[in-house]
Amino acid sequence: MADTKREIERKYEGPPAGGDTPLPDLTDVPGVSRVIDKGVAELDATYYDTADQRLATASLTLRRRTGGDDAGWHLKLPVSEGVRDEIRAPLSDSVPDDLTALVRSRVREAELVPVVHLLSARDVRHLVDASGTLLAEVSVDRVRAERLSGGAGSAEWTEIEVELADDGDPAFLDKVEKKLRKAGLRRSAAASKLAKALEDTAPRKSTKPEPEKPEKPEKPEKPEKPEKSGRSGKEAKGEKATKATKEATDAKSGPPESAPRTAGDHVLAYVRAQRDAIVELDPAVRRDVPDSVHRMRVATRRLRSTFRSYGKVLDRTVTGPVGDELKWLAAELGVDRDQEVLTEHLTAALDGLPSDLIMGPVQARLDTWSGARRSGSRQRLIAVLDGRRYLDLLTTLDTLVAGPPLLEAAAKEPEKVIAKAVRKDFKKVADLVGQALELSPGSERDLAMHDARKKAKRTRYAAETATPALGEPAAELVKSMKSLQTLLGDHQDSVMVRETLRELAAEAQGADENAFTYGVLYGREEQRAAAVEAALPGEWEAIEDKGAV
After folding, report:
1. DSSP letters of 191-218?
2. Does pTM top 0.70 for this prediction?
3. Is the distance from CB of 2 to CB of 27 less than 8 angstroms?
4. What is the pLDDT of residues 420-445, one digit of tens each?
5. Cα–Cα distance, 46 to 64 (Å, whole number)
């Protein structure tokens, strides 16, 4: 079984291999009482990746290491600069299934193969305070790397690592760094040993100039053919769209960090960000990291909404089927997420009741209901993430981002194309809110408010896409739609909670338990829904006064 350790460390470049280690006296670092020499450990690590280095590209490292006090398999997932989660598994001959699953969204069906072999002589020192508590571990690593795949080079170097002790204050690393910088050390340019090894052992491109090829004689120009009459409007439109697609693609060419210019640039930047979020959140969802399921579900919804809102930019005949698959994935993620939200809400509502209003084993029944649902939904979700349909969807998204189906409007200025799409979505929200306000309280109004909430989310995501191009007006609309979405979301949560309370009450009665408490909670949820319905007209009037972009 794999376990997780949060690793906070900094790396510094050492002298050339074989040189002296320029470590200063670290007892001068504020808070350090003693520096304890822990000796030298010999570490032997083999790093695994795909042949095209998909893990390294995403700053993930997977290794099998012996030596030291943490021998085993280690998968390191980036969290932020200098911070990684290290997932550990016991030693085995092949990559453990638990770790393979965590990299599946990156690897897909590609084989994991040994890419680099590292031998390190690690000279370890512990920095401790006056009470003997460990503050940080400082190691001087003399490394030899050998390329195993994609080349046959080798490299040697020395580096210094400073790793914060568990539950330590990250500010302590600044104090250590100040001392190291005074000694002439500087941060390593490589994020990890693997990154440096891959760079230093990469096959070098030949600098030998290619022989000049003889120039071919120019062909005589052919006379232009007269245009054929009678072309259908559909054919002419198709040719025009093809030309516009090429222009929009050309307009977005260049390095990824180049600023978006066209409508297509802005939409694709948002699409790319949501695709990346889905892939990056996959390991967190598998590890059941809090809020990861919700965030992944939001990314799928943002992506699908973007396809629908910007149908003038991206061809819906291509994005439509992808959107259907995203809807499926969001629904599968929702099984787990909806269960999580319902459990949290019912637990909080029950905790808020006076003890004299709690009759019967209400908490026990809630725990049993939640546990059974939670276990089943987790198993189902992991099966979805391991399934062919999900992996095919990830590949389809990669293909779409690499070769987007751009239409004529993609090459135009974003101020017109994007603003028009946002205004169109805003009008749909206005129509649905108006319909809901005209209905009497009941199931029909509940459904209308739910539809308005979904359109508010879509408009919010469209405005998020538009914000880099349109600035403050789009950002204000994002805030307005988020506020409306929250209000309508409270109402929908109340609807779902009341359905659950009816289910629990029926089960309690069937077991000859007192159902009084479920009725009390139901009544409170009715009041909650009524409060939202009373607040909606004023909320919407304020939003409508601001208008769209």
Report:
1. SSHHHHHHHHTSPPPP-SPPPPPPPPPP
2. yes
3. no
4. 999 999 999 999 999 999 999 999 99
5. 5
